[in-house]
Amino acid sequence: MTTRSAKIQIAFRYRTVDSPSGITRKTAKRLAERLGVDETQAIHLALHELAAKVLPQYEPDEGPLLAAQMRQIKKRVPQGTKRSVRSSLVERQSLSK
Fold first, then answer.
1. By the 8 A CB rule, do 55 and 41 touch?
2. CB–CB of 47/54 below 8 Å?
3. Fewer CB atoms inside 10 Å of the end CB: C or N, the chain?
4. Which of 34, 35, 31 is nearest to 14 (CA)?
5. pLDDT tens-digit profile of 25-77?
6. Residue 46: how many CB atoms within 10 A of its CB?
7. Across the strands, what pairs with 28?
């Protein structure tokens, strides 16, 4: 007899009408068909998109830099020299048109 880890599952109930807080099974099927996936994958895609919009995408830092940290940065980076970066990805329009 093999032992398998039980998958964690939740109950998912479709709504009787489409609303801002849920969708009907008919809408889920239409969405899945449009995306070319099954209903379960459509739900995962929707949850992933919501997670990317709502949840932080990085760990919070320790807050603002301390004065000592700023001094260390300024010490290592040459000060007083103006530098710019020119991109070859975007064409600049000349002002003399």
1. no
2. no
3. N
4. 31
5. 999 999 999 999 999 999 999 999 999 999 988 887 888 888 999 889 888 88
6. 14
7. none
- Asked whether 27 and 18 are in contact (CB, 8 A), the reply is yes
pLDDT in the model for residue 95: 57
Q: How many residues does the chain have?
A: 97
The sign of the torsion formed by the CA atoms of 71, 74, 80, 82 equals negative
- 87 vs 81: CA distance, rounded Å: 20
Rg value, the chain, Cα: 26
pTM: 0.54
Q: For residue 19, what are the β-bridge partners? A: 22
Under 8 Å between Cβ of 15 and 22: yes
In order of 18, 91, 92, 93, the CA distances from 96 in angstroms are 55, 15, 12, 9
